[in-house]
Amino acid sequence: MIVLRRALLAGGLLPLMACAAGESPTAPNVAFEELGVTSPVAAPSSPLVRLTVPTYEGSGQAVHPDVLWFPQPWHGWEYWMAFTPYPGGQERFENPSIVVSHDGVRWQVPPGLFNPLAGSLRRPAYNSDPDLSYDAAHDRLVLIYREVRAGFNSVYSISSQDGLSWSHRRMMFRRRNHGMISPTIVIPATGPATVWYVDGGRNTCPKRITRVMRQTATAADALAPYAVERGWSPPRTAGLNQKGFMIWHLDVVAVPAKGEYWAVYPAYVRKGCGSRDLFFARSRDGINWTTYPLPLLRHEDERWTSVMLYRASALYDAPRDVVRLFLSAQGPGADWRLGYVEFKYAEMIAALEGRTTAAAALQRMSHGTGPAGTPVDEDALP
C-alpha cells in the first residue's frame, strides 16, 4: 500500500516583507546558552544539512518547503516539493515553484515543467506560503498559496494530474491583512478536507496576537469551482497554542501509522517579533493538540540557521520510526536556505517532554527558573 504524506486517518535582522509586510523581528529568543546547553534539544539521528534547490531566478535561496513522499513513484518521482525562492528576503521573487527528487536530498526541476507556477506581482503585492497535497480521490497534486495584494490575503488553489501541467488558479478564501497566513490543507481519500492557518490579525508586532484556525470542507470536492468562501465551514479556533509564544508559519500533516495529525511551526516569544525556533505538536482529531514547552530545533544550533528557523514540513518513515523534517532558515546576511534532518521518533518525544538531561535544563528555563531554581528576569533577557 502506498503511504502518502497527506493521506488522512483511515546580527541584525532584515524585515520579513513577504510574511508581515513592513515589519522587522526585533527581540531574540530565550538565551539557552546561559544554561550551558549548546546542543539541540532533541538529538537528530542525521546531520542537519543544507539542501541545494534550483530556483528560477538562479540564487538557490528558498523558503516555505512542503514535501510529499511517494514510496512508489508518482509520475516518475518519489519526492515532490513546493517552495518559493527568497533571495535576500526579496518578496518579488517569492512565487510558488516545484522540484522533484528520488532521494529527498538531490533536487531538480522535472523535465517539462517551467517555474514559477504563479507569476510575479507588481510591488508591493507578492505571493507566498505554498502548501502541496496529494488528492488520492482524483489522483492529482493540489497546491494552495497566498497572494497579498491591496490589503487582502487571498488563498488560491491550482491542481495537476501529472505535476507538469497545472490548472488555472481559483480563489478559495479572501481575508483582510493578515487574516490568513500559511494555509495548510489535508485532503483525505474519503471524507472532508481540512484547512488550518494562522490568523495574524491587523496589528503589527509587538502588539500582534496570532491564532491558529481551522475550516472543514462541506462538499465532497473542496476544490470544485465554488464561490469564494463557499463550500467550507465557518472559521473556528484549532486549539493549537504554544504557551509563551506566537505561532507563525504552520504546516499540518496526517500520520496514519500513528493515528495522529502532526504540526510543525516556527514561533516567537510574545515580547518580541520574528520567527525563531521550530516547535512540534500532535493531535488525534486536529482540534485538541499536545504541545511541548521546548522547541524541536533552535536557531542557534547552526550558523546557517542562526537568524531564525522558519516554515517546515514533516514526513514519517514508519518502517524506521523516523521523523523526517524539511525546513527553511535565515542565516547571516539575509541568506535563506532549505535544510533536512531526521529524528528517531521515541527519542524526539522524550527530549520534548524533558526526559533527557539537556532538555530538562531547558525545560526549567521555559518554566521561569534558572539552573539553580532562581526566578528568571524575562525583561533582562537579550
Q: What does this 3D model show about the protein?
A:
The protein has two helices and 20 strands. The strands form five sheets. Strands 13, 14, 15, 16 and 17 form a five-stranded antiparallel β-sheet that branches. It has a four-stranded antiparallel β-sheet with strand order 1-20-19-18. Residues 1-38 and 365-382 have low confidence and may be disordered. It has one domain (32-370): Tachylectin-2, Chain A. The chain is mainly β and 382 residues long.
Q: Structural class of the helices, strands and pairings?
A: mainly beta
Q: Under the CATH scheme, which class? A: Mainly Beta
Strand content: 35-45%
Radius of gyration of CA atoms, rounded to a whole number: 19 Å
Under CATH, the topology can be stated as Tachylectin-2, Chain A
